[in-house]
Amino acid sequence: GSNDIIDCVPTGSVRISVGYMTEKTNLDTVYDMIVNCYVRKKISPLDRREVLTNYKVDVPLRPAPIVKQVRLQKICIYPIKSAAAFKITTQWPVTYKGLKYDREWVIVNGNGVAITQKNEQKLCLIRPQIDANKNFLRLSFPYMSDIQIPCTESHTENFIKTATMCQTKVCGDRIEGYDCGDEVAEWLSDALCKTGLRLLRQSADVKRIFKNGHQKGVAKEISLANQAQYLLINSQSVRWLASKVDDWEDVQYSDEFDLEGVVDRFRGNLIIETDTPLVENDWTGLKIGGIDLKVSVKKE
C-alpha cells in the first residue's frame, strides 16, 4: 500500500521463520542472497586493478601519436619524504641526484625506522616551504607554529662534532644521515602525536645508487625517492584514469572536479600537460630547457 512508499521508493520487509529444523547453511544462503542482490559494494583494490589491466585503451600505441603540445605545468619537490609537496611554477636547480632538496630529509621513529604515509597518514599535513634566499626549510602544520631548519649542510669541524650520525632503511637500502636536532624532533612529535620522532638528513658522503640506472657502467645516484631521480605525471592521463574509475569518490562527472588534488596523489616531480592522454607511454626521453631526461622505469 501507500505506507510502503518512502521518498518515491518502494520499501518493504521480508519475514524469515527460524525453527528447530533450521540449519546454519540455510541462514548463510539467505545472508548471501541479501549481500549479492541488495548491498551496494565498492570495487575492491584488487578488482580495480584487474579492471584497469583488462581495459582496452582507445589511444593507439603504434605508431606513436604526434604530440602537438607539451606544457610543464609545475615542478614539485618533497623535501621530507612522505610529507606534502613544495610546488614551483618558475624554475628550480637540479643536482646529480635529481631536483635540489627533493626527498633529502626523512622522519624516523624511536626505533630508527623511517615512517611514511603508509603507516602515518598525517604526514601529508606537514607542508614544507623553502626560502632559497635565506637557505631555510620552513615546516608548517595545522594549528601549530611554524619551525625553520637550515638547508645548508656545513661540513665544518664544529658541525661534525655536534651532529649525530644515524642509520635507517629506505626501500631496503641502508641510509646514513645527520640528526637535525631536538627542537624539530619535538615539533614533529607534537604534530604527529608520536613520541621519539627524529628528523634525519641524508648524508652527502654516503651514496645511494639507483638500481635501474646503470648505463654503460655509470651508476646513477638517487636521493630518498623510491625508484628514480624524477617522476613525471601527465595531468591529462590522470584525468583519463579518473574517468575510468567509477568508485573514485573525488571524481564528479563534469570538468569541475579537483583534478589537481587527484594529480597530487601520484606525488610526481614534473607535472606536464599534453593534448592527448597516455602519449608519454611511448616516450624514451624528454628535454626540459637544456636538460635531457631519459625514461628508465615506466609505471603502468
From TrEMBL:
Q: Which GO molecular function annotations are given, in alphabetical order? A: catalytic activity; molybdenum ion binding; pyridoxal phosphate binding
This protein's source sits in the domain of life called Eukaryota
Every MOSC domain range: 197-300
**Name this polypeptide is given:** Molybdenum cofactor sulfurase
Question: From which organism does this entry originate?
Answer: Helodon gibsoni
